[in-house]
Design a protein that fits this description.
Blueprint lengths: L1 E5 L4 E5 L5 E5 L20 E4 L3 H13 L2 H18 L6 H18 L9 H7 L1 H18 L5 H13 L9 H20 L8 H19 L9 H10 L1 H18 L5 H22 L1
Antiparallel strand pairs: 1-2, 2-3, 3-4
Helix pairs in contact: 2-3, 2-5, 3-6, 4-5, 5-6, 7-10, 8-11, 10-11
């Protein structure tokens, strides 16, 4: 790949063998380099494909106004978070996170602390991403000598969550956090019980709910029905759980404007039944 523009030591614009332009991120990737030099492949950490002129303009505008030190901080945060979470983020993360960190540090210098209204939901439902975001605060503190609040860790965590959403809207994870909390409230109210949120059983239930919501958001037209006999057997066996799930379905249909399939009802029933049985056994 040939370098066609150098933004700073960590970011360059390149052209590959097919004459496609890409943004490359990496430690020292632009250091001592010149336009038309061949890029050292050993320095590449991330490659952002600029499929459209709009995407290219967004990248170039962001790099024009971002300080080189904030770019480097963002690069380190992304590299560490991908390692911590065992994922590869999509192309949208770098610009969004760079913009957020720049703004957060600017607000900090003005003593303007932004409260995160969903901080508790983020801690609860996106535990791994939040822990990775706390490590991000450590990186920022080491590089910029300021300690940002847990509220900022919550915002950063949602960038990590969004970075794992292939092509989905940025607001979806925020909506999901609220929806899962509402589902829990319906379960607690229906069964008149409290749920221990520190257990592995609870964490597993949250993972299943996140999977269900991803399916509802992204699977269109292929959410197949199941065998009526199996569905009817489970409904008869767990009648109280079925009544609870029907309440949840009404809520989801109104909140997300979707129709919940029998397969998804069955999925909800099995996992809610598993969760509530455990809570009942502990209470007894």
């Amino acid at each position: 790949m040939k370098i066609i523009r150098i933004f700073n030591n960590s970011v360059v614009l390149v052209q590959d063998a097919n004459h496609e332009e890409k943004m490359v991120l990496g430690k020292g990737v632009g250091f001592n380099s010149k336009v038309n030099d061949l890029l050292d492949p050993n320095k590449i950490e991330k490659v952002f494909v600029l499929e459209t002129s709009t995407k290219k303009q967004v990248f170039e505008k962001a790099m024009k106004f971002a300080s080189a030190e904030y770019v480097e901080v963002t690069r380190k945060i992304i590299a560490q978070a991908e390692d911590d979470l065992g994922v590869t983020f999509n192309d949208s993360v770098f610009i969004g996170l760079l913009d957020h960190i720049s703004y957060a540090l600017q607000r900090f210098s003005q003593n303007d602390n932004l409260k995160n209204a969903l901080i508790w939901e983020i801690k609860k439902f996106y535990t791994k991403e939040f822990q990775a975001a706390l490590t991000s605060l450590d990186i920022i503190e080491k590089e910029e000598h300021v300690r940002l609040s847990e509220d900022e860790a919550g915002f950063i965590a949602m960038h990590f969550v969004n970075g794992q959403q292939n092509g989905s809207g940025e607001k979806t994870p925020m909506i999901d956090a609220v929806v899962i909390q509402d589902i829990l409230n319906i379960i607690k109210f229906h069964f008149k019980m409290e749920i221990d949120e520190t257990t592995f059983s609870f964490s597993r239930f949250i993972i299943h709910m996140r999977y269900l919501l991803q399916r509802i958001h992204h699977v269109h037209g292929t959410r197949n029905a199941i065998e009526n006999e199996l569905f009817e057997q489970v409904c008869k066996k767990y009648t109280d759980t079925y009544r609870c799930v029907k309440k949840i379905c009404v809520y989801l249909e109104n909140k997300l404007n979707v129709a919940i399939t029998d397969e998804e009802i069955l999925y909800l029933m099995l996992h809610i039944n598993r969760l509530t049985l455990r809570e009942k056994s502990i209470a007894e």
